[in-house]
Amino acid sequence: MGEFDLIRRFFQRPAAAGVEVGVGDDCAVLVPTPGARWLVSSDMLVEGRHFLSTVDPARLGHKALAVNLSDLAACGATPRGFTLALALPRADEAWLTGFAQGLWALADASGIPLVGGDTTQGPLNLCITVFGEAPPGQALLRSGAKVGDEIWVSGRLGDARLALEVFRGRVALAGEAFEQVRAAMERPMPRLALGQALRGVATAALDISDGLLGDLGHVLTASRVGATLELAALPRSEVLAAQPPALQQECLLAGGDDYELVFTAPPGARLPDVGVPLTRIGRIEAEPGLRVVDARGEPVAHGLRSFDHFQS
Ligand code: ADP
Ligand code: MG
């Protein structure tokens, strides 16, 4: 199978609505909604760094797109198109079939067409760029949190990190419990509907990719505010809640790969119901810094920080 057969077989489909020219020419030609703003984001997945070589290719296809869609979700964008740049060690049909299946399933479920990309031989590496739209002035940014706002999070935190610790051999989990946390790590669901419903409601938002403490820290820095987080309020699965408290804390506060949305909103704001649980986890304050307190309001010493590619 040559390069162009590969593209045609796995990554080319008839042009979708809003796409004048898709895969097959030098550029894709997209039709913008009049007056809308483009929101653009890229995320790269490198074997050994972001995923294990043993991961199921369908789950990898899903996750490569999911982490990108999560950035659109965090900004409240409507997905419009994506490109896929792929380096593959070899043209392995079985692998490509699985990968494409996971990728297209999420693309179709999210209403986002694949409009182009690049394919080359090399160490396994995936880079997706997503294009989304939002009305002028309505993109959810990190910089809008106000003193007195409440801090909310979607879904549950920490399961993906717990799965990683199982793969690392630090935690023993089996059966249904393991499958649950493994799915959180390998098949995160981008919160697209929630992000769009938060336009005009949330004052700031972002998605948790590197860990709650660090990611929320970006909101605080961009918004020039501080915050207090309630450790006991952080939503967790029964599987995580059964782990020792120190491990729970680590997974909840510093676990990466959650892809839930953290957002701020004024008290009493009408929060959207899109079928995703929302939990209030803290409050924005004028005093700079991020404080974590226990159920009695006492400070929690944790010494945790978020994931950093160049400091770990
Ligand atoms: P060029 O050499 O002009 O940059 P390429 O030969 O790299 O074009 O790609 C041919 C066409 O296939 C282009 O439209 C490109 O966007 C598309 N393409 C290449 N790789 C992929 C891929 N992995 N997924 C989707 N489209 C791809
Ligand atoms: Mg090219």
**How many domain modules?**
2
Number of DSSP strands?
12
Shape: globular
Q: What is bound: which ligands?
A: adenosine-5'-diphosphate, magnesium ion
List the uncertain runs: none
What is the H level of CATH, i.e. the homologous superfamily of the largest domain? PurM-like C-terminal domain
Q: Give Rg in angstroms.
A: 20 Å
Helix segment tally: 9
Walk across the major sheet and give the strand order.
8-10-7-11-9-12
For the termini, the CA-CA separation is 40 Å
Class by alpha and beta content: alpha+beta
CATH architecture name of the largest domain: Alpha-Beta Complex
Element order: H for helix, E for strand = HEEEHEHEEEHHHEHEHHEEE
Q: What level of helicity do the residues show?
A: 25-40%
Mean pLDDT: 96
Sheet with the most strands, sense and barrel status: 6 strands, mixed
Topology at a glance:
Blueprint: H1 3-11, E1 19-21, E2 29-30, E3 37-46, H2 57-74, E4 78-88, H3 93-110, E5 114-121, E6 125-134, E7 150-154, H4 159-167, H5 175-186, H6 192-197, E8 204-207, H7 212-223, E9 226-230, H8 238-241, H9 245-254, E10 261-265, E11 278-285, E12 289-293
Parallel strand pairs: 4-5, 9-12
Antiparallel strand pairs: 1-2, 3-6, 4-6, 7-10, 7-11, 8-10, 9-11
Helix pairs in contact: 2-3, 4-5, 4-9
The chain binds adenosine-5'-diphosphate and magnesium ion.
